[in-house]
Design goal:
By secondary structure, this protein is α+β, with helices and mostly antiparallel strands. It has a 6-stranded antiparallel sheet with strand order 3-2-1-4-5-6. The protein has a 6-stranded mixed sheet with strand order 11-10-9-12-19-18, with helices on one face. Strands 8-13-14-16-20 form a 5-stranded mixed beta barrel. A hairpin with a 2-residue loop joins strand 10 and strand 11. About 5% of the residues have low confidence.
Length: about 500
């Protein structure tokens, strides 16, 4: 006889009732996904999948502090839960005191839909997209292009319950299409990606038309350029990759301890830009002079912010972690998240900080939030920015960035590659393509040198799509983007 599959809410309650720890938090994540993949103008695979993950966080108080144990696994029935609970308790007892330990969160109102069934997706999400994709295949084949890519739609419903009484729920839809076009007559390629909640707003025929336009631009001629600094237009997807990388490194504690670009040179002592005073002997350590909070980072009126309720970019309005994300403390599970300006009008306003880090540094509580928006009041589209480019000499228009890696945390210098087309602009018109490059840049330094920001639009970073799936960015014009060497990749 097959055991009954329990509802996710039942697993939350079962785990909490079994817990013998001093504190317990349980996260059950229900996932469903639908996928299409294609290559050389033909579908290769399609399918749907469902899954469930259960995470148990046990906290155990000891003479020297509180320890946490985190264990995740799959669980379908109530009987599957107890081994996870016991393993989490054992892990907590075997761990040393956690330096970020805080009492579990209390006093957050229950989610009204906590008892509702999880959201689900299905292949029906592609009912309009798939036939239009077939039309794109036919047109690309007739015009000498090959299309490669994928479309994925996923829903994740997360249920969080704690021994302190929290019962919270969040539904997260996520959709993305990535399309690459190759010219069958030449090794050139073009790429683009779109984020969507339900695929109703994505037409693959329009995407293919845009790729055809880019390939036609590249076919106008090729220039082999040396390494150097070039006036460059960064499209929103490239800006997203750089700014998301910056946000991943914007931890208040790391900055206060002098490990990142956001730490003030020379460390603590004296009066800092944030106006706080240093702690005396035996007193609390304050930030004063140890971070760059309050410092102007850009001459443009740039505002970098996160907001769980941002239209089209909605994300969990509370801390939701399975312990795998080191940016979030498991002790903060359920902590409410609000709108936060990380940079406001070019000035650094906040660094990411959970409750423990905030106490340690003297900065406000501002946990990492799962979306990122850059705004500067610009109204020009990327096309309008291209039309205003190249009048004082050639300018580069990038397609995307790839394989970004950190070189120096003290300056946040990163290196990476341009990919799928570096276009050359003269007198407001794309006149052909250039070779690809390896670049060396610091996102923080780049903001200080940017001279124009365009209109903010929803986008997807290419390299950091998994880390930063919800972003809205403008194109940026930089007068001296550093292409450190020539790359022979496409």
């Amino acid at each position: 006889m097959t055991a009954r599959r329990n509802r996710p809410q039942e697993l939350v309650e079962r785990a909490l009732s079994l817990s013998r720890a001093d504190g317990c938090a349980v996260v059950v994540a229900e996932r469903s996904s639908a996928d299409l993949r294609w290559a050389r103008n033909a579908l290769t695979t399609n399918g749907t999948a469902r899954g469930r993950a259960v995470t148990v966080i046990a906290t155990v108080a000891g003479g020297q502090g509180t320890a946490a144990g985190v264990v995740s696994g799959s669980a379908v029935t109530a009987d599957d839960v107890e081994p996870l609970v016991r393993a989490a308790e054992e892990a907590a007892r075997g761990a040393g005191p956690a330096d970020d330990a805080r009492p579990l969160v209390t006093g957050v109102p229950h989610s009204p839909a906590f008892e509702d069934p999880p959201a689900e997706t299905s292949a029906a999400v592609f009912d309009a997209f798939a036939p239009a994709l077939g039309e794109s295949f036919a047109r690309a084949r007739a015009e000498g292009r090959e299309l490669y890519g994928y479309a994925r739609h996923q829903t994740v419903t997360s249920y969080l319950g704690t021994s302190t009484g929290l019962r919270l729920r969040h539904d997260q839809p996520m959709g993305r299409v990535e399309l690459n076009a190759k010219d069958v007559r030449d090794p050139r390629s073009a790429w683009l990606s779109r984020a969507t909640d339900a695929f109703a707003d994505v037409d693959p025929r329009l995407l293919d038309a845009e790729l055809a336009r880019r390939l036609a631009w590249a076919a106008r001629g090729r220039s082999e350029l040396p390494a150097g600094r070039y006036p460059t237009l960064l499209p929103p997807t490239a800006v997203a990759d750089l700014l998301c990388y910056q946000q991943l490194r914007a931890d208040a504690r790391d900055a206060a301890e002098g490990r990142t670009v956001f730490g003030r040179p020379g460390g603590g002592g004296g009066s800092g830009g944030d106006g706080r005073d240093g702690g005396g002997p035996g007193g609390p350590t304050r930030v004063s002079g140890r971070t760059r909070v309050g410092e102007k980072l850009s001459g443009l009126p740039l505002t970098l912010r996160s907001d769980p309720s941002a239209p089209g970019l909605e994300c969990a309005p509370f801390v939701l972690t399975d312990g795998a994300d080191t940016r979030l403390s498991v002790f903060d599970s359920g902590l409410p998240l609000g709108a936060t300006d990380w940079i406001r009008d070019g000035v650094l306003e906040r660094l990411t900080a959970g409750r423990h880090t905030a106490e340690l540094t003297g900065l406000p509580v501002a946990p990492y939030t799962d979306n990122l928006i850059l705004e500067a009041g610009g109204t020009r589209s990327l096309e309008e920015m291209v039309a205003a480019s190249g009048h004082d000499g050639p300018e580069l228009l990038l397609t995307s960035l790839w394989y970004i890696r950190e070189v120096d945390p003290a300056s946040l210098l990163v290196t990476g590659l341009t990919r799928d087309g570096v276009l050359l602009v003269r007198d407001g018109e794309v006149v052909g393509e250039a070779n690809n490059f390896r670049f060396n840049e610091s996102p923080v330094d780049l903001l200080s040198r940017a001279v124009e920001a365009g209109r903010t639009e929803r986008t997807v970073p290419r390299d950091l799509a998994k880390d930063c799936p919800r972003a809205a960015m403008p194109a940026l014009r930089v007068p001296d983007f550093h292409m450190s060497s020539v790359s022979r990749g496409v």
